[in-house]
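Q&A FORM
Asked by: J.P.
Topic: structure of AarF/ABC1/UbiB kinase family protein

PROVIDED:
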Amino acid sequence: MTTPARPPRTGKLARTAIAGLASTRVGMATLRHRLRGDDAQAGSPAATAARQAHEAEIGRILMGAMGQLRGTALKAAQVLSMDADFLPAGVRAELARSTHQAPALNRALVGKVFRQAFGCEPEALFSHFEPTAFAAASLGQVHRAVLPDGRAVAVKVQYPGIADTLETDLTLLRGTLNTVGHRLLTLPDSTVVDRILGEIRRQLLEEVDYEHEAEAQRWFAAHPLHADIVVPEVIASHSRRTVLTQALLHGHHVQAWCAQQPPADVRNRQGQALFDGLLHAALQLRRTHADLHPGNVLFLPDGRVGLLDFGCTQVLGRPFTHGLARLWTQWTARPRADAAALHGSYQALGLTSPSLGLDVFERELLPAVASVLDWATEPFTAARFDFAGKSLPPRVDAPRQAALVRHLQGMTAEMMSWDRAWLGLMHLLRQLGAEVDTRHANALLAQETA
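REPLIED BY: S.T.
REPLY: Here is the structure written out as tokens.
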């Protein structure tokens, strides 16, 4: 049984001390790395292994601090882990472990949230309310309950004080990355760091507002992504800014679902729904669910897929979807588009400065992004793609990481959300082992470039 947790430490002094200790530990780890001379033979297998071990150590230090802070700090760790162009691969891998690491709250704190939101205990609102959460994440936890009319529901309860820590946490994270990160981790300059953290701040402000999430969830329910994708109904009467009640879906997360060894045709049907549904949402509805980690997708026994947690969504403008479709079709075309065309697409998407010349783009940036583009567009290279053989996200070596830092301006809100969604989808479909027909998706890309 999970031990109930105390609420996160919301005091600025306590949270600053945790972040400060993490910065000190990162500095000491880097000093040890340099004193050992691990970089003396840059490019050698020994130096590469030492650098990867150093990145992992730094990632563990940062993850340890964010795990203590919990709440928005832990959620920020999840978002940062999804950006392949920002943090070194070893650091990202450790931060990615942040998913579902928050322990459950005790009964007294759950009651406090309900009294503040509704003026009463949960037992006064529901005919039955399970006091022990069945799911917990960085910002809240979920309880099973039954409405007075007999409908089974899932009730998401936000951890007390989470919203109040947001600004403090991002200030601490910004300070850590600016004073330690760009010197020791080869991160971008402070302007790019601020831009990325500003976008994380926007996402987190939305995610701690369950009324905003309920509105987004109702929008997706009214604009179906696919016939086999289910969005649970929001129960407005039992929802507030810190409590979200929705219809309970009975299904399994991807690992538990695959453990039951569902037939290949069922897995393929579900994978097809997710693949086509996300691209339909982005390229035709111009909005994306930006948090497709395994905890937010349920595989239902009837072959459909349940989509959860709409706290982080993003409206996608036509210039972005056109630019993305153009870049991906240029990359997968045979013969591949020339460097000048790819240079134009990167600039149109706002990923590079207008002052970045074609010669530098072709010589330095294009080799650095090639493996990332190969990985992202891999499913579109065949009429049917088997995700059981999907490659893992590429590990970008130190020279190419440095090129990304020098030449990429940082992510726009649209690109950051899309990258997060696409990475989550690729991981899900790989775990599911689904084989999908990509012809409809390729047609959508071609239509968007017209």
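FOLLOW-UP: Residues 1-8 have pLDDT under 50 and may be disordered.
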